[in-house]
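Data follows
____________
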Amino acid sequence: MDVFHVTDLNGNKLTDESVISYIEQSLETTYPDKSLGFNGLTALELTGTDRVGLLSEVFAVLAELQCNVVDAKVWTHNGRIASLIYVKDCNSGSPIEDSRRIDRIEARLRNVLRGDNDIRSARTSVSMAVTHTERRLHQMMSADRDYERKPDLQCWTDSLVVNVQNWTERGYSVVNVQCEDRPKLLFDVVCTLTDMEYVVFHASINTTGDKAYLEFYIRHTDGTPISSEPERHRLIQCLQAAIERRASEGIRLELCTSDRQGLLTDVTRTFRENGLNVTRAEISTAMGMAMNVFHVTDATRNLVDPKSIESVRQKIGLGNLKVKELPFRHHQMAERQDEHEIGVGGAVLLSLGSLVRKNLYNLGLIKSYS
């Protein structure tokens, strides 16, 4: 039995019956629809070394190759970038299936990702398996071993603590996580445990203010606990990376405008020309409208000068590009650095995902408070 106490993102009790019904139906579905509306699109997976302007170059290549970007998510972490981009042919609106054309797209994108000094680590591929986009991004970054690289988001590292110990008498490994609370935190942690082939038998999740406290009792799929110090250390590294990847580094810019061919190329080129570095992006289109979210910093991954932001907004359109509030941790960092305050951070709440439901006969009651 799994018990979750949840609120909406504003901390209010759920009262919308349609939302409650949707949650119930989703949890009751044995085999949920994993297509997520991406049928009829070609999924491109990209990993490589992050740099200022890289996203602009990627979208420019896709536009040149007559690929229309319908949806995309881009994460950066520890100097690496991972992206899952869903495209279709600009002219026919159909998925791109010609093998020679796919090879040409992959080769061009691989050259962009390599840059001048990244010959071996750039990877491009067309994904055939249908999976959850954000879970796939975790898998891609983990395969890229981003968790072994030097952290580039020190403010998260300072507030994040992960401990793993064995409870020998009961045959469990106990994972404790303390960090700043945010949406989809539990999803990120549980997906990582699952992909590393651990089974969660018991867990408790607590949130107090802007802090989250997570405890998991886990075993390998064969029923054994963690057996070595290198394995314990790797699990800690992977969980830390999973929590940091989604951290909203930089100022959040929201673009809402009529979609057109070359829009992403123009927008990201404007970012690059004004010294803005995209650290995370969510691209979506629906009914002829582009609804895109970008998190940007300056070239050194520090807070952007407000004048640069306003200059970009003037070029893209003040009514189209909106500046959203910064997370609270960036205000703390700005105060320490005597930088200008851009906005007021808001509280973020834990977004509760589904715990692994294997070996149900071994599961105990999951206690959760929020």
